[in-house]
Structure formats: structure tokens, C-alpha cells
What does this fold into?
Amino acid sequence: MEFQFEQNLPHQREAIERILALTGTLHAEHSLNHFANCDIYPNDSKIQAELGKIQKDFQLNMKGFTPAQKAVGVAPKPCLYIDVKMETGTGKTYVYTETIHELHKQLGVSKFILIVPGKAIKAGAKNFIEDPDVRRHFRDTCGYGAEIRLFEGTEQKGNKKKKLFPSAVSGFYQNPGESERYISVLLLNSALLTNSNYKNDDFDYGIDNFYCPLDALKATRPIVIIDEPHRFSDGNKAMDAIMNLCPQILIRFGATFPETTVGRGKEKTVVKDYKNLVYNLDAYESFNKNLIKGIAKEHINPLKDAENIKVKVAEITKIDKDNCETRFTWEDSLGKSHRKTLSIGISLSEIHENFGNLVIEDFDKKEIRLSNGVALKVGDTLTPDMYATAYQEAMMRMAIRRHLEAEEQNFNREDKIKTLALFFIDDISAYRNENGALRRSFEKILKAEINKKIEGLKEKDPYREYLQKSLADISATHGGYFAQDNSSSEESVAQEISEILHDKKKLLSMDNLRRFIFSKWTLKEGWDNPNVFTIAKLRSSGSEISKLQEVGRGLRLPVNEFGKRITDEEFTLNYIVDYTEKEFADKLVAEINGEREEMMFITDAQIEEFAQKIGIEAEDLLMELLGKKFIKMRKGDMPGHPVNPEKTNEFADEYPELFKVRDTGRKIIDRNKKKGGDKIRIRSDRYNQLKTLWLKMNEHYLLTFDDKLNDELEKALPILIKQDLFAKTVVQSVRQKVTTQNGVATVHDSSGNSYEVERKIDYGKFLQRIQQKESVPVVAMHQAICKFVQDGGKPMFNERSLANICAEIHRWKLEKLMGRFSYQKVSRSRIKKTSLNKTDGSSEEFITLGLVGKIMDAGEVPKKYLYDSIAYDSPLEKDDILNDVEGVEVFGKIPKSTVRIPTILGETYSPDFMYIVRRKDKNELNLIVECKDVENADKDLRGGEKLKIESAKVFFENLENEGVKVRFKKQLKQENLQAIVEGL
It folds into this structure.
């Protein structure tokens, strides 16, 4: 395979042209130092004028000028700063490599220092720059006459007798600074700038009278390029060392930039620390222009009857500088409270077996860090269910299935695409050991899924043959890279590392079966392979790095079997996470949209409506707004004409009514979230009228049953337990795609999948959980299962079987319970606090709108009503609120989930309305109404709803027996509330 590169891709060339426009303002003169670049003289007025043209269409928070004629910050000498913002996967490495060639051509400079944050990124940069195909491309296709000589900085190891000067530094220094044939590039990772080998001057020999490597580099008057600038914020040691190199030009390339604080007090804000930003290819534009893959996030929901244990960090206590004690608390599945204190290095499996080899690895004052990278503060929780082997296997199955879907499509193309999948894990030994549990599970699942795929393929299908080769040598299909592998002497491990880290061509060869890569979050930055189509985080990374950086390993557009990048088609990256990261897509969308300023739009409809009001043509108004630069022309998929952020005050002053109706799009849209949080006022005088009834309804009651039921159930159990109740557990995945439209990034639901897992439960726990959920004695349940086995039954003790058995027992209870239950009051001294009342029984001032109703109505609020606004959930409820019913003194909608009446379903129930009714010649009466916006109760109400209403009838009859004058009524769609009141 030979990699093919396209010259002059618009999004890449534009970045280079903007850099050259700024550097074109510089004046360069020959240097007297043979080993240094030419002397560069900046002119701030020319730079600022050119930058103004470049930044003309930038949003305000990206504009700004940093001078080049005077030193800034810790820099001892002036420097021209240039920032280039390019999203991950859009060819940043290519752009800065071509920029080096262009600056050599434009200014005659030959000394560049390329600085990256870590070794993995350094390896990627080295592989690219030294690749023969890359060199050939820039020489033959692009026509650059000079060749790059790369010097890689490494840790210099001397012997006991001598301390050797870094060879990369001496080699770089001794090359001429103004060479026509060669460009010298020194590649350093940030740690080399701050360790003693490069900072000190105690070497046994120097070069050209320099005994400190950094001083020698400083003398070359280099051009410095920084990759991943967010790792080099002003003030950190590496950045200080860079500025002490006295670069004449400093160019930062990255998707993310450092942040800085501006303003004071309430005006203090955090902003990106851009220095002469010339290009902004953000995530939105990258997705929208199809420069990178789309993203489909998918997670598997927890099992419906999982243990749902939450292990909480209760306290972190420092013992000494090397150790701490962390106290964890939790309730088990039976509701019993536990606590456990663990020190550094102790396995969390002492809390729950699902945690396996997970240990506390490190700590500081406020948090602990686990061996999988998760950082926990006091109050944070862990979910053992997410660490269960069955759950992890379901994630692997989902990832493999998604991989095979993509692989089949890519294989059947005329120009095949080798398809890769990347798995992040936390237990290295479980994969690296030949009989490791993770390795065995993966190979078992992969074989099963490949066989399943083969069944649906024709006999002579080439993809079928490819899969059969994989089955014949399953171990050859996967490989791993972990930091500890660097010290491994195994030849097979060395071969895997070579392919994964250094030999991209071999890994992408269709003849190579290896396509599943395992790592411990080591490849999160720096490593990339364009043909990764699936990333699975089998363990949450706990990382706070940006979500775009997380998916960055798989965003690049793929290359085909001939090494050509495919740029005219749409591809999707499958990103598999566990349930604890279910909000990943939302966070990703927020990040994509987050750097864009709040944009305001005026729609054509709003312009037309306002034009009619003031008596002019809509077209004339539009031209007037454009002429005054209050708005800009609408482009592409924008929802309207964008308001000019620099003219908002003038716009608001001259056209206050039109400005008031503008559409403000905050650029974070989540169609899966419901709006909420608005408040409405509670009328305290109306509450006081309802107070006695309200507090009475919220007293504590227990549901009690006929004592004979338990005896009947024990007799019925052997008949209820049947073979079809025992089944394998099936879990469902949730898939979401990130798309861009109408000027914003959004999340859309996509079709998920079902996966069978064998989630075994210890038999004793199985019986205990049935007892907890359905109050069935353990002995009785055990005897019923023994009878089932004696009769030839084959039980499976897992979550699915547990749920089925509980459902069958529940169904039996419902059939037998009608008319055989009652409510018993439980005395307590304190008043229950609800969304309506405080602990002293008095009224709250406000209530959350969503608790009353999801639909608002701007009509006049009845004086008798409990709230000062109208909110409802159905047309029938709206009618009941607005209709003035004779005899009703006061009424109110009962907030959702407040009156928690226990029902025979094992759930709680809350009615819709409460009324105080005073009829002629009759005593005051309390009325509780359940609204059902259906025509026929027997036909349209589900069984569960009927049973809840029946439970409520019994509950309020119980209240009446206690002396409370109350009636409970059900109201259907065709029933008038006035008629119900009159019929009391």
C-alpha cells in the first residue's frame, strides 16, 4: 500500500494561505550566525491591518491582536504569535508540515522546532514526516525543492564516565539556518524542555561554546510550532521553556486552546486564550462539510431488575503523603446498609465482586483516582452493575456486531476499506494473559458473531471467505498496546506494538487479519488510524478531557486499500459506552456548539409581520436592516438572518419591537430533554382553605392484606412455576447520532439492538430477591423450585427469570387481591414536606410548573384556583380548571407524585384534583377527582389504571371511616364536572 495525499484541499489550503498572509507582512534579513535562521523584523501596524482582514467574519470572542514588536509575558524577546484552530481529524499534521515548506519558501527560514505534549503524539508526528510517501508527495506533487531533516529529541543516556550532550540538539544546531536544500526540524515532547538533560549545562562537552542544550537551541532563532496547545497554557513550565527559546514566530495548531480569566468579581469570565487567530475550522463546520466521520453513540441500558446498587464515597482521609483511607457506603439489593474503608492498592472487590481487580491507585486532598482512571470526590458514586462480566460481554457483543456491519459494507466496495475497532479496557492481565478472562470472552463472542454473520452470506461471497480465514486463526484478528508492553521481551507483543504504533500500512493491509485493537486509554491522544469505525469503552475512562478528543481516534476519514482517502462519502464512527456515560452524545453536542457565540436570528416571517405593522414593504425593511448592518445575509441552513453582535444596542434602540421577537439559538439542542424548571405561584389563602384535606391525604398509610393469602400463595407456587418463566437475559441498546443542521449540532435517536447475556444470580440471592420484591417466603419458593426440577424442569437463575417469576406471582396476587385489602394509618409526629407545603404545614411560595402540568394557558385564572397560572396535561383538565362550577369554594390540581397512595400493584398513585364543595342546605364536603380523557373506562383504561383507581376508592373510603368527609370520583371525557358535583 502507498498512501496517496490530495494537494490543495480547500479547508487545508485556506489555513496555510492565512498564515502566509500574516507572515507576508514580515521583513527578513540575512543573519551573521550561520547556524541561525534569518533575522525577522515584524511591523505591528501591518500585522494588525492584515489580521483585521482575516478576522473580519470571526465572532467577537475569537477576534484580537497580540503585538509582535514587544515581548509578551515571560518571553525575553518579541515574537509573532499565530493560532490555527482545526478540529481533530481534519489534517492538522499535514497542514503544519506544508506550512514548514511554505515558510522556508517565503522567508528563507530553515530551523523549526516542533513541540508536542507526549510521546504517543511525537511518534505519530515522526511517522508522518518521515514516511516515504509523504516525502514524495511534498517533493513531486507539491514541488517543494527542500527536504525535511527530522531530529527526534529523546532522553539522553550517558555512561558512568561521561555525560553526553543530546545528539538531536547538536545535529539540529549544526545544520545551516538558511539552506535552500534542507529544512531542519527538531521534534520534542514537552517533558524534554523541563528535565535536567536539556536545562543544565554540566555536560562533558558542548557545541560551539554552548553547554546547555536549551541555550544552543535559543541561538538558532527558531520558528516554533506547537501541536495540542491546550496542554501548553501560559505559566506552565513547558511554556516558559518554549518562550525562553526566543522563537521569532510561534504557531499553535490545535482543536482546543488554553483558557484564561478576564474581568473581576461578577464580571469575571473564562475565555479561550487566542493569540492572533487566523483560522477557525471548528467541530460544527467539520461535521457539516463532511471532513470527518459522523458519530453514533450507543449504550446498553441496565437490566430492569439489576441490583441497582450505588456505592458512595463517604469520606477521604489522608494518612500520610503516600496513603489515604476511603470510606464507602451503600445499600445492598435487600436494602441493608453497609460501609467499608479501603486504603491505596486494596481491591474494590471487597465491596462488590463485579469490581474485579479495580483498586484505588492515587489520591490528593479532594479526590481518589482508581486504576481505570476514574476520579472520585466525596459524594460521587460507582455502579457495580456496570462492571459485571455479563454487562461487559454485552458491550463487546454490541461493538463486534457494529464492527461486522461496517466491515461488510466496506469489504464489498470496489475499493475495499480495511475496518478497525478499538477497545479501551482497565484490566491488562485479563487481555494480555493467554488464558485471561477478557481475552477468552472476546474470542468466544467474536467466533459466535462471525458464525452468525456467515449463516446469512452466500457460499461464494468473498466476505464469507474473509470471515472463515478469521475463524481459522482467531488470535490473529486482535492485538493490544499497553504502556507496560514497552518492557516486554515477547516477540509476539513486539510485533503487535510495531503494527499498532508504527506500521500503519501493514495494519491497514487487507491481507492482515488483525483489526481489533485493545488498549488501556493509552491511545486517547496522538495515535490515530483513519480506518477505526468502532470505539468501545468497556470501562469508563473517568477522563475530563474533551469529548471530541475522546472520539478523535476514529474521526478521520478512511483510506481504501490503495491508500487513497475517501472524501466524497459519509461514514459513521460507532462509539460504545456504558450506561454511566449515557449523556455522552449530549455533552458532545454541547461541546461542538459551545465555542460558538449565542447567535440571534431574525426570520423572514418576523420581518414581514413587523413591516406590515409599520406600513412598509418587507423587502424594503430587509434592505434597511442590512444597510445599517443590524443583520447579515442569511447563509445556507441558517434559520434566519443573523443579528450583527457588534450592533445589538443600536438595533434594540431603533427597532425595539422587532429586536424583542428575535430568535435566540444557544446552539445546544437536545430533542430528548423536556423543558422544565419554571415556577408558578401558590396562592397561600387558597392553600389554607385546602390545608386540612391536603395534610390528611399525605399522612402515612400501609396497605394490609387478608392473612389467608400467604397460605393460598404457597399452595399455588408449584403450579405457577413453569419452564417458560426461565429465559436468557436480553438487554437493549440505545443509539444516538450527532448531526448538524440549521446552524446547530443536535442529537437524534437511532435504532438500537437487543443482546442476549447470561447474567447468573447466586441461588440464595435469587430466592432473597423474590422474597424482597413479592414477599414470598424463601422456604416456600425453594420448595416450589425443587418440585419444578423433580418434574423435569430446567431452571436458569438470572435477571430475566427473576423478573418473569416475580411478574407471574404479581399477576396471581392481582387476581386474588380485589376486595381483600385495606389501609392502616401509621402514626408519626412530624408533618410530611411536599412540593406544596413546608415541614410546619404552611404553604410554599412557588411550585415547579412541570409538577402541575406540561401545557400552559394564558387565559384568566379563576379566583377559586390554588395557583396563579393555568397548567394542565389534557383538554379535560383544562376544561375543569376554566369552568366555574357552582358549589365549589376552592380547588387545585394535585402536584404529580405527591399524594403517594400505596396500591395493590406495588406502586403508588396520586389523583388529579382536590375540591372543597359547599352545597345548598348541605354540609361542606371534600371531593377528589381522577380525570381520564377517554370515552369508555372499561374499554380504554389499561388494567393497571383500573386497579389504581380501585385502590384509591378503598383509600378514600378508609379516610371517610376516620371522620373525613370526602368523596372520590372518576371523571371521563364525556362527563361534566358540574354534574359530578350536583350528584354528590
Notes: The first strand starts at residue 27 and ends at 29. The first helix runs from residue 10 to 23. Residues 662-677 have pLDDT under 50 and may be disordered. Residues 198 and 214 are 6 Å apart (CA to CA).
